[in-house]
Write a sequence for this structure.
C-alpha cells in the first residue's frame, strides 16, 4: 500500500458555511480520498460560536465553578452540551451530547475570539456526511483528547462518513497461525491521530489533511453511514464509566 498525505493550510476562517469550506477543499480532493478535517472548522461553518455572556449560570453551574475556580458561564455552557456529568473535580468530565466522554464537553476556548467559545458540532456524523457528499470523498472530523493513564492529548475522531470506523480482525490469524478472537482496530481514530500530528495544536492554520491511497478502508456503501457513534461503548460494556458513577456517589 502506498499512501500520500497532504496537509492543507486555510485562510483564517471567522464566519463561513459548510458549502464554502467544501469549495476551498474541492481543488485538493478526488474520489477515493479520505479527508480529515478539524472539528473547529466544521463548528465555525455551522455557526457554533457563542458569547459567554449569552449564558445565565444555574445554581449547579455556580457550585461547580466555585470548586474549579472556573467561570460559571463556561460551566453552564458545558452542562448544556452534556448528557451526564461524571466527575466535577478536579476537572469537569462529562458525556457530551454528541457521544464522547471528555473534559468540558469538547468546548474550545483556543483559536476563538476573546469572550467567545466554540461548541462542538451538534451531530458530527451528520456533518461529516454532508461534507463528504459535497466533495464525493470519505470524511473524518477530528478533535484532540486526553487519555486515561497517559499524559498529552492526541487526535481522535468525533464524526465520520465513508470509512468503516472499526476494522474487525476476529477470525484472522497472527504470524504464528493463531486465530485472533477479540481484536478490533479503531481506524478512524488512527487517521485522526496522524492528521493531528500534521495539523498541530497551535496557530498552524492547517485544519485539514488529505489521505490518498486508503481505498481499502473505505466503506462499501456510502448510503448507510455507520458513523463514530458505533465506536462508543454501550452502557453495559463501559465498566470504567460504571465505576466512576459508583465512586462519585460516595
Amino acid at each position: 500500500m502506498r499512501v500520500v498525505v497532504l496537509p492543507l493550510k486555510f485562510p483564517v476562517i471567522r464566519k463561513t458555511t459548510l458549502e464554502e469550506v467544501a469549495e476551498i477543499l474541492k481543488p485538493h480532493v478526488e474520489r477515493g480520498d479520505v479527508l480529515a478535517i478539524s472539528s473547529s472548522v466544521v463548528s465555525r461553518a455551522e455557526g457554533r460560536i457563542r458569547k459567554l455572556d449569552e449564558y445565565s449560570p444555574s445554581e449547579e453551574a455556580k457550585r461547580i465553578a466555585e470548586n474549579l475556580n472556573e467561570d460559571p458561564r463556561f460551566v453552564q455552557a458545558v452542562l448544556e452540551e452534556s448528557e451526564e456529568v461524571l466527575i466535577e473535580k478536579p476537572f469537569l468530565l462529562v458525556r457530551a451530547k454528541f457521544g464522547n466522554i471528555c473534559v468540558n464537553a469538547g468546548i474550545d476556548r483556543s483559536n476563538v475570539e476573546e469572550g467567545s467559545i466554540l461548541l462542538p458540532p451538534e451531530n458530527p456524523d451528520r456533518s461529516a456526511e454532508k461534507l463528504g457528499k459535497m466533495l464525493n470523498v470519505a470524511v473524518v472530523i477530528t478533535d484532540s483528547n486526553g487519555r486515561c493513564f497517559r499524559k498529552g492529548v492526541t487526535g481522535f475522531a468525533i464524526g465520520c462518513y465513508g470509512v468503516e470506523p472499526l476494522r474487525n480482525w476476529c477470525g484472522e490469524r497472527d504470524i504464528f497461525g493463531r486465530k485472533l478472537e477479540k481484536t478490533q482496530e479503531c481506524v478512524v481514530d488512527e487517521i485522526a491521530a496522524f492528521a493531528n500530528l500534521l495539523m498541530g495544536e497551535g496557530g498552524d492554520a492547517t485544519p485539514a489533511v488529505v489521505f490518498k491511497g486508503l481505498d481499502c478502508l473505505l466503506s462499501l456503501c456510502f448510503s448507510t453511514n455507520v458513523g463514530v457513534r458505533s465506536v462508543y461503548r454501550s452502557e453495559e460494556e463501559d465498566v470504567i464509566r460504571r465505576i466512576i458513577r459508583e465512586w462519585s456517589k460516595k
